[in-house]
């Protein structure tokens, strides 16, 4: 690898090498990820699989971090900031060698100089879904590798819709009509999602805005007013329970799992939970009535790591076909490798893979900015206020349009 880099520099003139030879060490590493929402523990099992086949010299210690996402990001940023300027042995055991990053964090972590740049030839970014691969870059450079794709999907009570003689909704109008008229007959909520004031709300709001013809650049436009207004009127009219304004992934899934909601917007991982529940044969999964937000997680090497060669090998292991297929079959995490969606054995075993593929391929990225943390905070504040007080909707969105411009530029 080092010889290839030297040739590249001298002959091809390709600039600064991606790998710093001074930190090409091998040894034990620490891997940090957000809390594994799946009850099957597939992430821990992948770490155990690595440790079982690797030398103890390159053992991986797995550190699950808190959920929700905002808390996890804050802890990662704090640790990286504390270690800024300290590398290798100087960082000691405090360095998280391999970190899992939400797809919207790449720019912020890369520009803060918290990540080690990755070599393109070694990591093979062209193997991945285009949108996922793009989320791992900043300024044309590769800083991470796509690991778990994600896109919002709609779960519904297929038994109740069948009893009413209707098909699953394919538009927001149909969803609202069914949520408002069918759910009350069974004494349950019409629709739940992640509407608490955290990152989940930004995602849910964007999907509603996109589903009504709006975009993330015009929060005071008609599409944004219609999308956020739909959610706000749902809370006001009662087909979205007011309690949902506190829900995250776990709370919203609990409502659906325990039979208290007709529709649930969440991530595909929930399918495995539902398959193991009393609702096993009484639910369906479909695309949202509009574009989904591209979620998911990339894996990156921290700049402070003294064992970056081991870290990159571990990333190759996590993002390879074997590991991604395991995450898909054990927990329902959509793969980022394009090849797995065409795998005949997987398609036969998992009929819903076609739904996952459509959701991921049609998903849209959230705004990409180094100041995403500031941006999502202003979105969460304004949308949460609007959902709780629909009369303030227009004023909140007008102010949000101004706040987004300032936040996106870091002002």
Automatic annotation (TrEMBL):
Transmembrane segments: none annotated. Keywords: Signal, Sugar transport, Transport. It comes from the Bacteria. The keyword Signal applies. Gene3D superfamilies: Periplasmic binding protein-like II. Pfam families: SBP_bac_1. Belongs to the bacterial solute-binding protein 1 family. This is Multiple sugar transport system substrate-binding protein. It comes from Saccharothrix variisporea. The lineage of its organism: Bacteria, Bacillati, Actinomycetota, Actinomycetes, Pseudonocardiales.
């Amino acid at each position: 690898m080092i010889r290839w880099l030297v040739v590249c520099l001298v002959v091809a003139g390709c600039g600064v090498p991606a790998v710093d030879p001074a930190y090409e060490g091998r040894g034990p590493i620490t891997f940090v990820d957000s809390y594994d929402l799946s009850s099957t523990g597939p992430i821990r099992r992948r770490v155990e699989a690595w440790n079982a086949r690797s030398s103890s010299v390159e053992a991986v210690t797995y550190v699950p971090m808190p959920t929700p996402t905002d808390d996890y990001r804050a802890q990662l940023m704090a640790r990286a900031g504390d270690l800024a300027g300290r590398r290798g042995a100087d960082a000691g055991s405090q360095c998280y060698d391999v970190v899992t990053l939400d797809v919207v964090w790449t720019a912020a972590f890369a520009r803060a100089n918290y990540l080690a740049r990755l070599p393109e030839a070694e990591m093979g970014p062209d193997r991945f879904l285009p949108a996922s691969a793009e989320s791992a870059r900043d300024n044309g450079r590769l800083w991470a590798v796509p690991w778990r794709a994600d896109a919002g999907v709609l779960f519904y009570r297929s038994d109740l819709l069948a009893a009413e003689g209707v098909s699953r909704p394919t538009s927001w109008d149909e969803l609202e009509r069914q949520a408002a008229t069918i759910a009350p007959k069974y004494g349950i909520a019409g629709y739940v999602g992640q509407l608490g004031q955290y990152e989940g709300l930004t995602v849910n709001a964007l999907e509603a805005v996109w589903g009504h013809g709006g975009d993330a650049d015009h929060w005071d436009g008609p599409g944004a007013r219609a999308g956020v207004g739909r959610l706000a009127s749902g809370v006001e009219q009662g087909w979205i329970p007011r309690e949902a304004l506190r829900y995250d992934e776990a709370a919203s899934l609990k409502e659906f799992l325990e039979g208290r909601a007709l529709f649930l917007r969440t991530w595909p991982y929930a399918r495995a939970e539902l398959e193991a529940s009393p609702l096993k044969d009484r639910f369906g999964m479909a695309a949202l009535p509009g574009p989904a937000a591209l979620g998911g997680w990339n894996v990156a090497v921290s700049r402070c790591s003294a064992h970056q060669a081991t870290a990159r090998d571990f990333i190759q292991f996590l993002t390879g076909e074997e590991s991604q297929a395991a995450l898909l079959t054990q927990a329902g995490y959509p793969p980022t490798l394009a090849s797995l969606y065409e795998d005949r054995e997987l398609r036969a075993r998992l009929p819903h893979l076609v739904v996952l593929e459509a959701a991921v391929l049609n998903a849209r990225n959230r705004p990409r900015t180094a100041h995403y943390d500031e941006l999502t905070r202003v979105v969460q504040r304004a949308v949460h206020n609007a959902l709780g007080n629909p009369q303030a909707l227009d004023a909140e969105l007008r102010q949000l349009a101004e706040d987004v411009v300032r936040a996106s530029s870091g002002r």
